[in-house]
Design goal:
InterPro entries: Ribosomal_uS8, Ribosomal_uS8_CS, Ribosomal_uS8_sf. The chain is an alpha+beta fold. 25% of the residues lie in helices and 32% in strands.
Length: 131
């Protein structure tokens, strides 16, 4: 039984980037699709798709690398964990590495990046840090 599916997703992405895989498959959920959408919108993934497989659906991420094969994701960490939730208001959200990275938040308006949360003036649970 998996206790933290978000941490599992981030670990799969971290491992795929380290071995330079072009695509990555994992079980799907609405939370995982939301995180994949944010990563795509922020330019860390080419695309993602949901594939119908038996017995459950699979989420396929198409990884993105630089023009010379360099990693776009150098670090991806879980911030809010099941044992210690981390919540931030939009005023408490600071740019990551001077705007070079993002925080992924779960808000009442869905899964969003810290940039969009500041623009929309909404806070939420800080799920992950990516740069």
């Amino acid at each position: 039984m998996m206790t933290d599916p978000i941490a599992d997703m981030l670990t799969r992405i971290r491992n795929a980037v380290r071995i330079e895989r072009q695509q990555l498959d994992m079980p799907t959920s609405n939370m995982r699709k939301g995180i994949a959408q944010v990563l795509k919108d922020e330019g860390y993934l080419w695309d993602y798709e949901e594939i119908e497989t038996a017995p459950a659906r699979t989420l396929r991420l198409h990884m993105k690398y630089g023009p010379n094969g360099e990693r776009l994701i150098t670090k991806i960490d879980r911030i809010s964990k099941p044992g210690k939730r981390v919540y931030r208001g939009y005023k408490e959200l600071r740019p990551v590495l001077g705007g070079m990275g993002i925080q992924i938040l779960s808000t009442p308006q869905g899964i969003v990046s810290d940039r969009r949360a500041r623009e929309s003036k909404i806070g939420g649970e800080v799920l992950a840090l990516v740069y």
